[in-house]
Each structure stands twice: as structure tokens, then as C-alpha cells.
Amino acid sequence: MTLSLPAVAKLNLFLHITGRRPDGYHNLQTLFQLLDVGDELHFTPRHNDKLTLQCNDPSLEGPDNLIMKAGRLLQQHTGCKLGCDIVLDKKIPMGGGLGGGSSDAATTLLALNTLWQLKLSNEQLAALALQLGADVPLFVRGCSAFAEGVGEKLVPVTLPEKVYLVVTPHCHISTAEVFQHPDLIRNSRALSLDTLFNSPWRNDCQPLVEQLQPIVAITLQWLVEYAPCRMTGTGASVFAEFPDTASAQHALANLPANCRGFIAKGVNQSPVMAALADTEFYA
Q1: Which of 10, 90, 104, 204 is flagged as catalytic?
Q2: 256-261, long-range: CB within 8 Å, 24+ apart, which pairs?
Q3: Which of 14, 60, 139, 242 has the maximal Cβ count within 10 Å?
Q4: How far, in Å, are 52, 75, 168 from residue 82 at the CA level?
Q5: Mean per-residue pLDDT of the chain
Q6: How far apart are CA 247 and CA 236, in angstroms?
Q7: Is 81 known to be catalytic?
Q8: Number of CB atoms found within 10 A of residue 224's CB
Q9: Which residue from 94, 66, 91 is spatially nearest to 264, judged by alpha carbons?
Q10: Candidate list 39, 90, 104, 135, residue with the active-site label
């Protein structure tokens, strides 16, 4: 039988960079808002240890995909001799700062832990997830959260479940280039969560990305005509909050030709948790 699970997108409602660590990574403070839309993954277990990946975008089917890395990591950590055929229906724009690859990896860890009956706790899976990327533990834990450190120190939060329009201009943003760039803001003052909730929200990566990719600045200039907006993650996706779906649809109908967009609702709990709980595979 096949287990089908979502892999949701996220927004960074704010992103402050508070310093650079000796290992080259950056300390940050951010507020992760999970969304109710994302990719879809389908898992069919195998009785040998082979892992395969098929995708509606064939360029993503290689062994370096985080989905494959997640499966191999789980096999190595547990000594499991089972495998899986995995099909990815990719919907989240790549390179948009929406966490698509990290979410796919997290859903893979959750799915294979269930299918292979490994019985690892959520804490154990989150610790493994950090080896795959700083955002992966967020999706393993499956809740909107305030994050510090490199993004792995998570405090669950309950946020108003608002309507967002997410717009991705046609450009490629290199996360590595952004974080290595000398002009990146790196000296934001670390603040308490209460203070941050009562301060104007911003993304410290946005000024640099607007400089490197003017199309991001142009897209923000278009979107701000409808609602206050900012960039998520290291971009290129930008987003705005709307009072209702109809208002967001009005803006989406006027989307510039060089962009793609979608409407989503913020959620506090990832749909993957409910989907796992409802499945007959769940132990």
C-alpha cells in the first residue's frame, strides 16, 4: 500500500540576523508560519533497502535530493534494511525561501519512521533532521514556531491563521551567496519574543536581495499596492497578508507576467500530523 502525505510550505514572518558564528553559520531570530499548501509525497515501502525517487520535475530525481538523503540517513541511523519507492508532486516554488526541500525531507523522515516501524520519537527525528538542514526540524515538529540559533531552537507559538498571497518572481536566489555576502546585515540586536511581537517586522536579507535581484524589489513594489509586504527567508518569494481570500484573489488576478503566485492560509499545526494520525500505517 502507498502512504500519501503533504509537505507544507512556510513563511518567515520576520528574520533578524544577530551575528556570525565561528563555523560560518549565522545566528538568527525568526518567526516561522506554516501554510496549508505545499508538495505531496507518496511512499510505497519495499522489502529490500533500495530507495527510489520519481518527480513531476525530473531534474529533482537525483541522489542529492534531500528526500533521498533523509531516507539514507534514517537507514544508517537505525540499521533498517527496508526501502521505499517515493513519488514527489512538486508544487512549492524552488529557491523561494518557502522551505520546500526541507519540508519534503521532514515528511520523508516522518513517513519512513512510520512505514518502517522504527518508533523513533519526534525529538529523535528532529535531532536527525538538523543534519539535513537548519529548517528541517521545524517541519518534523510540525508547528509554527519562534526560532533562534541557526533556526533549530524552536518555541511553538500560536498565531492568527491569516490569509496570505505568496508571489515568486522568476529569478534564482542563492542562499549561500546571500549569507556569504559582505553587505548582509549581521548585527541586529537579539530581542525577547514579547518585544519582537510588539515591534515592526522585517527581513534582514531583503535589502541585499533587492540589490542583487532588482526583480524582487519590483515585485514588492507591485504587491505593496495591495497590502504591506516583505520577503520570506532568503527569497525570492514575497508575501502579503490579506483580510480574506477574495481580497487576495483580486491581487492574484493582476499578477505580473514574470511571477507565479498562490493563496494560502497560515496554520499552527502541520496537516502532515493529522494525516499521519489518520493513516492505518500509524503505530
Answers
A1: 10
A2: 256/169, 256/218, 256/219, 256/222, 258/169, 258/170, 258/215, 259/167, 259/168, 259/169, 259/170, 259/219, 260/93, 260/167, 260/168, 260/170, 261/165, 261/166, 261/167, 261/168
A3: 139
A4: 12, 8, 38
A5: 95
A6: 23
A7: no
A8: 13
A9: 91
A10: 135
54 torsion bin: left (phi>0), alpha (psi -120 to 50), beta (else): beta
Judging by DSSP bridges, how do beta strands 51-55 and 83-89 pair with one another?
A: parallel
The answer to whether residue 157 scores a pLDDT higher than 90 is yes
Is the CB of residue 55 less than 8 Å from the CB of residue 34?
no
DSSP string, 139-208: HHHTB-EEEETTTTEEEE------EEEEEEES----HHHHHH-TTS---PPP--HHHHHTS---BTTHHH
The DSSP call for residue 59 is: G
Task: Please name the residue that has the C-alpha cell 518502517.
Answer: 116
CATH class of 1-283: alpha beta
Report the pLDDT averaged over residues 209-225: 97
| Grid cell for residue 183 | 553587505
Q: What is the pTM of this model?
A: 0.95
pLDDT for the residue numbered 283: 44
10 is a catalytic site residue: yes
Question: Which amino acid is it at 231?
Answer: M
Cell numbers at 247, concatenated: 481580497
